[in-house]
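Worked example

This section walks through a single chain of length 256. The input is the sequence exactly as stored; nothing has been trimmed or padded.
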Amino acid sequence: MSTTEQDSTSLAVEKDWFANAFDALYPIIYAHRTVEAATGEAAFAIARLGLRPSSTVLDLCCGNGRHMVHLLRHTPDVVGLDYSRDLLGFARTQLGAEGKLLRGDMRTIPFQGAFDAVANFFTSFGYFQDEAENQAVALGIARALKPGGRFFMDYLNPDYVRAHLEPESEREAGDFVITERRWIDEATERVNKATKVHRDGVLVNQSSESVKLYAPDALQRLLADAGLVIESRFGDYDGSPVCPENPRQIIVGSRG
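Given that input, the structure is written out below as tokens.
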């Protein structure tokens, strides 16, 4: 057992952690994840997907709509799907009357052959402890795409996570003090995080997160089994390759 795992034995992650992790305090905990910060990421995705003004796009796990704002400036036909009512509310505030927002579970994407492109930003994949449920997400992406439609997935790089994981941190956001503990469970190949938020010394929120550490070959097999073909990979939004020194595993491909 690693030191990181030993330090975290008293912590636990609920199987359905995602049901509560993205609540009304999310914009405070992750205040740095802004529309402005998403500008370059969205531009990179738009270019790699080859989006046109006539393209239909699904922003899967759209969150507070920070990428969707930019997608809508390129094409008016964008649907954002997310499970969090709170984040969808923030998204509507940011988007105004533009775009379509839908509350839904990414394991049961309610579309078939509807989109020219599906975008999945910022590690919104690998949430589920049951491998069949993660496979269901990939199958849903393929099903939602038109024949030959393209997908963009921005996922973490497991090698980078293992080398750079910060076991514990504390920071301030306005009146809130946020402490985060992170650890890797090698038995399940998952990276986990437990977050506590205090205000004036009082605990006001706590949540957990857990994401599967898919190596590139494992992720390729999972996507291929769903009928998705990888065409290119990038290690970051500067177009650099996937390698242990780069933090991301950005995948661009198409429905086979």
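What to look for: The chain has two domains: 3-14+159-211, 28-156+215-255.
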